[in-house]
Amino acid sequence: xxxxxxxxxxxxxxxxxxxxxxxxxxxxxxxxxxxxxxxxxxxxxxxxxxxxxxxxxxxxxxxxxxxxxxxxxxxxxxxxxxxxxxxxxxxxxxxxxxxxxxxxxxxxxxxxxxxxxxxxxxxxxxxxxxxxxxxxxxxxxxxxxxxxxxxxxxxxxxxxxxxxxxxxxxxxxxxxxxxxxxxxxxxxxxxxxxxxxxxxxxxxxxxxxxxxxxxxxxxxxxxxxxxxxxxxxxxxxxxxxxxxxxxxxxxxxxxxxxxxxxxxxxxxxxxxxxxxxxxxxxxxxxxxxxxxxxxxxxxxxxxxxxxxxxxxxxxxxxxxxxxxxxxxxxxxxxxxxxxxxxxxxxxxxxxxxxxxxxxxxxxxxxxxxxxxxxxxxxxxxxxxxxxxxxxxxxxxxxxxxxxxxxxxxxxxxxxxxxxxxxxxxxxxxxxxxxxxxxxxxxxxxx
Length: 446
Description:
Blueprint: H1 3-6, H2 11-20, E1 24-29, E2 37-39, E3 43-45, E4 52-60, E5 67-74, E6 79-88, E7 91-100, E8 108-111, E9 114-116, H3 118-121, H4 134-137, E10 143-151, E11 161-168, E12 181-185, H5 186-195, H6 201-207, H7 215-220, H8 228-236, H9 242-258, E13 261-266, E14 274-276, E15 281-283, E16 289-298, E17 305-313, E18 317-326, E19 329-338, E20 346-349, E21 352-354, E22 379-386, E23 396-403, E24 416-420, H10 421-428, H11 436-443
Parallel strand pairs: 6-11, 18-23
Antiparallel strand pairs: 1-16, 2-3, 3-4, 4-5, 4-13, 6-7, 6-9, 7-8, 7-12, 10-11, 14-15, 15-16, 16-17, 18-19, 18-21, 19-20, 19-24, 22-23
Helix pairs in contact: 6-11, 8-10
């Protein structure tokens, strides 16, 4: 394939062009006005497919709150999040989709080649087929670079997981991208990530599976400048041995055994401190988030018009990773965090995972939150990224990476541990060990 037809030289212009090529409308409406949705003890679709919203009662000895109730999204289907990759002129290129999602602050963002649940690609909605789906359902003759079931936002989803895949096709296999698709290099994707709200969450979780473990892989992704990014690339090569992984898994099992978590599904009307009526589902004090209805029109989607509930969080969410060069290798401080929607109670999270609307004041903020006010010279990344725009409305999270100087002492609680990116990458490839917020930040370090 000729480079001139395969590569998009200006990703910003391509995204703007695709956004302008279609018409979009997102309107907030009462839950009672959602066609084919019913609100009783839970909020559910008449088909029994797609997803539902139920109540949850949680008890745990992790964190400052031993018991609370909340709504949560149930979506038992395992969706496919897949990216096609191939070498063009010796450099890896990723087939990305310019995709509109109603919850995104910037409606159209780069998404994975395929981002679809079974309800979508089996066309329960009666819409158009999912392009390139066969590359992820039929694997013969293709190299599977990454294939793993991974968790989703475990404070808002119950036991939600998606199949994250990267499939490499031969250099001589020709794919001519259709209108909404473009080949981007890793460097181009990194620039989009640094701008913020350009690469959606589902693409970021797949991209977190990329590794610079070997020097030939490093070269194939293009030039990496000296300094911090070189340290990041070197960190991808560290901690990858089986003994390193086994030690990390043993530590995580110790953490799981240390904390309790009891999660029970209850009626939406039995949730303390929550109001559930025809308009929305919301906290009495306006904290945390609310469940709203939306009417959506998008001429670029498989279905042009639809209606659905959305989770709208309070503004100001932040995730941050502290990193430091330790024993000659850049390492990242992660925490073992219990979340109510996780399949196995606990996964690794970023150093700070802060939802200001969940706390009554700064005195309740999590450990190490003071590093959010680190000197500007320590900040290596600060960008706002959208969360799952298919289920969450304007759920923007500020992503921060803080590089503390050598010799600076970080006093972390016992459920925190320093890990190089190579070890974190091995754990991502192993399943339910690294939560989606941490994976999103790792992807921003490409």
